Each structure stands twice: as C-alpha cells, then as structure tokens.
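User: Predict the complex.
Assistant: Input components as received:
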Amino acid sequence: MSADATTELEAETTEDAENAVDLRELTHPDPAPASAPTVFDVADLAVYYGAFRAVRDVKLDVVKNDITAFIGPSGCGKTTVLRCFNRMNDLIEGARVEGLLRYHGVDLYGKDVNPVEVRRRIGMVFQKPNPFPKSIFENVAYGPKLAGIKKKAELEEIVEQALRDAALWDEVKDRLQKSALGLSGGQQQRLCIARAIAVRPEVILMDEPCSALDPVATLRIEQLMQELKSEYTIIIVTHNMQQAARVSDRTAFFSVDVDDESGDRTGELVEYDRTEKIFSQPSDRRTEDYVTGRFG
Amino acid sequence: MTVVDPVVPADQPAVADALRASRGAGVDTAFRLLALAAGLTVLVILGLITFSTTRSAWPAFVHHGASYFFSTDWRPSQGHFGILAFVYGTAVISFIGVLLAVPTSIGIALFATEVAPRRLRRTITLVMDLLASVPSVVFGLVGFYVLKPPMQTLFRWIGNTVKDIPVLHQLFGQNSAGISLLTAGIVLAIMITPIVTSVSREVFDTVPRNDKEGALALGATRFEMITGVVLPHSLGGLTGAVMLGLGRAMGETIAVTLLIGGVAPRITANLLGPSDAMPSAIARNLSEASGDFRAALIGLGVTLFVITMAVNVGSRRLVDVLDRRLKGAA
C-alpha cells in the first residue's frame, strides 16, 4: 500500500477541484487525449467469492470524462469488476478483493475508506431499472436529501436540473408527484440516471443499463451518455458489442479462463485499449474472435 | 442455407384433431370445483361461527341493550351485565403487549435480515420459529413463577415511591400481588414477539435487492437504507404482522387468566392492579354459568370477534392510505 493510500478521501476532493479546472482548459479534439488525467488506476485486481477466484489480472486506467466499456462473454466477471469501483461487492458475504484499485491515488479498499463516501462520489445505474416505489420527485430527491439538503426550493432546483440532464424533464414535469413505477422502462432507467446525477458524483457506473430496454429507449440512453460525458466519467458494462463500439472511448475485453484440472472458471482482463483499436486491430487473438463474432 | 418460398401443402396434417383433444379437461374441472369448495368452506365456517355465537348471546343483547356494551357494572348475581371494563382490560393488555413486542420484533427481524452474518441469521430464525410454537400456557407459567415475584417487589417499591405524586399515583399506585394489567401485558409481549418477528422477517426478505442496492449506491448508510427503502416497502406486511400479534394478544386466554387476577374489572388508569379481560372471563365462568349469565359471556366472545374484525379492516384501510401517500399516486 502506498503512502497516498492512507490519505483520506476528503483530502482528495480538493485535488478533484483542481482536476476540474484543468479540464476546462483542455480542448477535446480527441475523445481521449494522450495526457488525460486518470480517475482510477487498477493493478493486479482479483476478486474472490469465498475461496473461489472470480476474476484475476485486472489492470487498467480509467480516464477522466471518458466512457469506458467493459465487454466480454457471460461469466467473465465484468460486472463483478464494475461493482468493485463503488464497493458494491462489500454487500456480498464472502466477497474479497485483492490487488490495488485506486481512485485519485487513494486505495478504495484502504482501511480508512468509508464505502458510503465512496458511493456518494461514484454513482451507479443498474441493469434492471430500479426506481423506488415513491413519486418521481422523491426518487430524484432521495440522494440530495441523504446528503443533508432539506430546503424545498433547493431540492426542487436540483431535481429539475437532474431530470433535464437526464433528458426526462419534458416527459415528467407535469407528473412529478406521481409514482415512478408508472413510467415506461426506458423512462425509469433515465429516472435512475437522474437519481444518480442528482448527487453530483464524479463517476457513473452503468451495469448493462440498456439490457432491459427496447432499441429506441436504448438509443436515447446512448445519446444521453454522450451528453453526460462532458461532466462525468462513465464506466459501462455491456453485452452488446455494437453499443460498446458506438458509445465508448476505451474498451476492456474480459474473457473466461477454464482451468483444465479443476474446471474452475475465472474471468480475466484480456485487453484494454482505445475502442477503435479493440474493434479494428485487437492485439489478442481472443479479442479478435469475440468482436468478430467467432467466439464460441 | 437457402431460403425457399412457403407453400401450403395439399394434405394438412391432423393438427386440428390434436388441438381439440380434451386430455386433462376433466381433471382440470374437478380441480377447479374442489378449490372452489375449499374456498367456500372458509366463508361457510365464518358464517356459522357468527350465526351460532350471536344466537346464543342474543338474550344478553336484547335484555340489556346498550347498557350491555356501555356499562361497567358487572354483577352476575344481581343480573347486571356491563362488559365495558372487560373490553378495557383486553384493550390495555393487548396495547401493552403490542407496544413492547412490535419494536422488539422489528429490531430482531432487521438484525436477522440486514445485519447479522448468515450463520447467526439461521440460528435466530430457528429459535424464533421454535418459540412461536411454544404453547401459551407455558408462557403463562413462566410469567406466574418467574415474572410475578420480582414484579411484586417492583410494584411495592413503585407504589411507595409515587404515593404522593398526583398523576403517577393514579397510574402506578397502591399495590399489590404482582398480578396486574401490566404483568399480563408483558407476558403477552413475550408471547407474541416470536410470531411478529417471524412474519416481519419474511416481509423484510421480500424487499427487492435491487431497491436496497439502489439506495446504497446513492450513498445511503445501512440505517438510511433501512428507513428509506426497507421499512416503506414493508409497511403493508408489517401491519399484517402487528395485526397477527394483536389478534393473538386479544384472544389469549390461559396465560392472561393466570396473570391478570380475575377480579371484577374497573376502568382505571392503574396498570399495576388486578383486572380481567374478555377471554379469561369466559374461560373462568362459562362452565358454571346459565341463562342470562351464559348469554352475556358468549356475548363477550362475539364482541371480541367483532372488535378483532374491525381492527383488521381499519388497519388495512390505514395501510392503503399511507401507501398512497408514500409511493405517489399511480
């Protein structure tokens, strides 16, 4: 563990602010400039469920304001890895992480790190839209209320802004007090995105956010991601290769390695590079087989 | 693979007959009738209970009219049958029981579903389910031999301490043998805790993992997740759990009979004095009662039955209203 690792997250937020200033000065001719600041750096990450090693050898840097896609076949551990980034795996009994996962240089699994604070900075959108059984307004206001915002006017402003940013405002502005469960699947997922961005996180993790949606709703979410990336860093897990190719700047390809003797299936990171490189000239044979559809 | 144009073949296979074949239709009909009969049985039994008890209690209702329900004068030897103080006794001990049992049960259930490690979880569940099946007379005996003696000491001490303080004196004054509304209420609380815990735990288990993760992902602490997601989601089910507990408390006979004293009840604020409740009055007196006395006792049962139903229906309504307010209109 490095010396930085023990630094508290609070101390890092000042550095965040500096990063943000840097960014405004950066013009973005290239989706991923060579010198872009990283948000996460991951080295030799492995995740265990009890004695079972689910994923190993994850090594990647996540670049600020990039959309990073995790792709790979079922069981390759891409969702497991994603859920390490906001300590969501903590909730699974027996789950354990080895290696280093650093957020602005701080080891997210360091002793002093509070997962609640981690999750306020690193939001998540789930595979199945999961609005709370409350009104649309209360769904979006839930996070800000947790953060201690109580004034109604302020909450109203935050909710409106979040819904606008999530491209949902026009559809729901007249029914904010109605149940969120009455929305369509696509609207519910955009509501969940609004709910996530209402707490102003730096990063949004998306776990196959479109897998339960129809093509039109999927397209809207993809457009939304492009709009959000100027302000947020996004990591998306998708089983849809076209989606990864369409939306992401960088792609990590995960694969499953089956142990010949024990039969254990372990996920591993095969290749991580710019998306166009992964899809046009991957350097690993397994990546090529997968992206060209020859897999399996 | 070459794609060919579809052609309707001249000789259609015998699909039609196969589709119309009635395999299993008879069994299905029989099953439906059987299920219907089972469902109707519930209603028939309910109707018969209501009819037969009301008929037996009818003389008391007719002879004494409103004073049967609204008088506290219960002197069977003089022909006075006013049951209000029994209703009060039942209400007070049930209220004490629920008041003590519900927070405890919800706490245990939350611990078992949200906090405890898996192995401990199973142990708690097992113990609670075992406790739920302990016969109530055992709880009554435990109350009588374990709870009563220290209560007696405690009550004397309280009585002496508050004897000059106006309001507290009314509530906790002048006592006694350790047999009281409070003692009965506490034993009821112990008795209904396992069942309320067991149902609450099952209710909490149905909260979607998705919802809980959604709250945590927004930076909720475990406590905020429980208050913001788990409890609102469980409101209806928890009401059911409380109703089940309340129903048992209101109807509990033997444990209450052992601990409430069985004196002619009064409506009093003194929780430390002996009193009586509806079911124990029936159990104690019915074998020696006849005529109007007997009808009055059965009337107690009918009244208890009606009150239980009313509480149940009322709480369902309340949950509907609260649900709508919490979850937003559809």
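Confidence is low (pLDDT under 50) at residues 1-32 of chain A.
Let me know if you want any component modeled separately.
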